[in-house]
Design a protein that fits this description.
The complex is a heterodimer. By secondary structure, chain A is mostly helical. Chain A is built from 15 helices and no strands. Chain A has two domains: 54 residues; 217 residues, MetI-like fold (Orthogonal Bundle), CATH 1.10.3720. Chain A starts with a helix and ends in an 11-residue tail after the last helix. In chain B, 39% of the residues are buried. Chain B is built from twelve helices and no strands. Chain B is mostly helical. In chain B, 78% of the residues lie in helices and 0% in strands. The chains are: A mainly alpha, B mainly alpha. The interface between A and B is large, with 97 and 92 residues.
């Protein structure tokens, strides 16, 4: 590897200015080799395999039977319920996260890494455990119902309902909505906002005309980072939904647990199509396609 | 005044929401009753039991080793890749970045399943190595996305100046480029480490029955009830990280008392670049 760069060195002198750019490329391209091989083996090949298994039978004959499994009433209901719950959770996350990000942006902190830290810190407690802890809070004899009965409000049935799953989704994925929005907000130039105010815009107009459009990239990446994991979860529904509520993630996990590789892959393909559709819808509103503002 | 009070109240409510389950878990770790829903009095028993419990200790060991190794390997591969991608022309760069985004945007369940299919198709036995490979795979994008912004801020001429002054490319890399992008490399490493530590779904699909990380161990216990030792362990881990972060925060706050918030004056920042 080193030899290649050595050989290139005289070429630089010969090509002079014209060779400047291509030289830069030749010199570092080999550094991407390990990653290129890794990508081919563990990102591209897996996707090809899931498509292959999804459209073949166990004997290797082509079929669309696995894809059509989604029209089975149980599977279809699982998909629709997952879509509904994840959509509701995403909207709630956005409604909770945006004001929070605005306030955090306003509070003058010594360093903004402190705010990011507070939001990320819960993730250091295992997410399964945190979700299990919600069982403690939500169950009939749980913390919440004890508090409510203290106030004279009868015990609420929350655990093992779709509502509990939504709560679990909002809880687990809220940081993924807050951080991208916050990261965009802190980068907005104060001078732009001051200029708007100087030109006579009231705070509502400033928000709608300046802050909201400028924070759109953060909202977009927040939405994708909440919606996709919520749509495909099987853990939250297992822990907070009991055994009766089945989401599409549970169906796929079960297929693989039973060893039905082809059926599971077929359903995963359908799920991926839904993910792609939702991303296409979202990216339509995303004007800045260099989505590097995830963190 | 009222508005500010309301804002503080709102932040407090959200923080309560985020931290309530953690409080519950910490309380449970001191609960002498084995049942999750009954308070049986204060005890430190589970903290003693924890270190005697070989299964949990093994799971902890596996979790930490996989997190450390996968973060380290991902940091090396990812940093090298980021440097190469940064030097590429627009089209290959866009394609590579698009592929890099796949594991981040794709559902964990699909990533886990598809990796499992590869291991099975290649007749590669599932176990420690397959989990490690899976973790490296989903960690690399975090490293690349952390290093990339630092590379974009680099002055391309310093590297060339070093070469013109007679430095070998590798010497120039370690002396000129690496120090500048190091904060990005470090944050990529920690991000990868955290992601690996917290992962359940991808590990679930790429592991064999014999091997467990903390997440998969906890999942097998969801139905029959979590062992209180696990609460004790996660409390210890949480407190450790909390103290570590407070320490780091204090130190960096001491070092530069007047930290300018990024973006508070972007004009200046641009000129510095």
């Amino acid at each position: 590897m080193k030899d290649v760069t050595q050989v290139n060195k005289p070429a630089k002198r010969l090509n002079g200015e014209a060779g400047h750019h291509s030289l830069k490329i030749k010199k570092t391209t080999w550094l991407s080799m390990p990653y290129l091989l890794w990508m081919a083996g563990f990102i591209i090949l897996p996707l090809i395999l899931i498509v292959y298994y999804g459209i073949t039978t166990e004997d290797g004959a082509a079929t669309i039977k696995n894809l059509l499994l989604i029209s089975d009433p149980i599977n279809r209901r699982a998909l629709l319920l997952a879509l509904e719950l994840s959509l509701i959770s995403t909207i709630i996350c956005l409604l909770l996260a945006y004001p929070l990000a605005l306030i955090l942006n306003k509070i003058k902190m010594k360093s903004n890494s402190f705010i990011v830290m507070i939001i990320i810190l819960p993730m250091w407690m295992n997410f399964l455990l945190r979700t299990i802890a919600w069982q403690n809070i939500l169950e009939r004899t749980g913390v919440l119902n004890k508090l409510l009965s203290f106030l004279g409000i009868g015990p609420l049935n929350i655990i093992n309902t779709p509502g509990a799953i939504i709560l679990g989704m909002v809880y687990n994925f809220l940081p993924f909505m807050v951080l991208p929005i916050y990261n965009v907000l802190i980068k907005i130039d104060r001078d732009i906002i001051n200029a708007a105010r100087d030109l006579g815009a009231n705070s509502m107009q400033t928000f709608i005309k300046i802050i909201l459009p400028l924070s759109l990239p953060g909202i977009i990446s927040g939405i994708t980072m909440v919606f996709v994991p919520a749509l495909t979860t099987f853990v939250i529904s297992t822990i907070l939904g009991g055994s009766k509520i089945v989401l599409i993630g549970n169906v796929i996990e079960q297929q693989f647990r039973l060893g039905n590789r082809n059926e599971g892959s077929g359903l995963s393909l359908v799920l991926m199509i839904f993910i792609l559709i939702s991303m296409a819808i979202v990216s339509k509103y995303d004007k800045e396609s260099e989505g590097s503002s995830i963190w | 005044m009222v508005k500010r009070l309301f804002e503080r109240f709102y932040v407090a409510i959200i923080l309560l929401f985020l931290y309530a389950p953690i409080l519950i878990l910490i309380v449970l770790s001191f609960n002498s009753s084995k049942s999750r829903s009954k308070w049986g009095g204060f005890t430190l028993h589970w903290y003693q039991e924890l270190f005697k419990n070989e299964e949990i200790m093994n799971a902890l060991y596996t979790t930490l080793i996989i997190a450390l190794l996968s973060a380290l390997i991902a940091t090396i591969i990812g940093t090298a890749a980021a440097i190469a991608i940064n030097g590429m022309k627009k089209t290959p760069r866009t394609i590579l970045m698009a592929i890099t985004n796949i594991p981040m945007l794709n559902a964990d369940i699909v990533t886990g399943i598809s990796l499992m299919l590869v291991f099975i198709a290649m007749r590669f036995a599932l176990g420690f190595v397959s989990v490690l490979i899976a973790h490296i795979t989903f960690n690399i994008p975090y490293v690349i996305l952390s290093v990339m912004p630092k590379l974009k801020q680099l002055n391309p001429h310093t590297f060339e100046a070093a070469l013109d002054l007679g430095a070998s490319p590798s010497y120039a890399f370690f002396k000129v480029i690496l120090p500048d992008i190091f904060p990005g490399v470090i944050s990529g490493f920690f991000l990868a480490f955290t992601m690996s530590l917290d992962d359940f779904v991808i590990t679930h699909f790429t592991k064999a029955p014999g091997i467990n990380t903390l997440s998969t161990k906890i999942y097998t216990e969801v139905r029959k009830g979590i062992k209180p030792e696990i609460y004790a362990l996660s409390t210890l881990m949480f407190i450790t990280v909390l103290l570590l972060l407070i320490f780091i925060n204090r130190r960096s706050a001491d070092k530069k008392p007047a930290v300018k918030r990024p973006g508070s004056n972007p004009g200046m920042a641009d000129k510095r670049i």
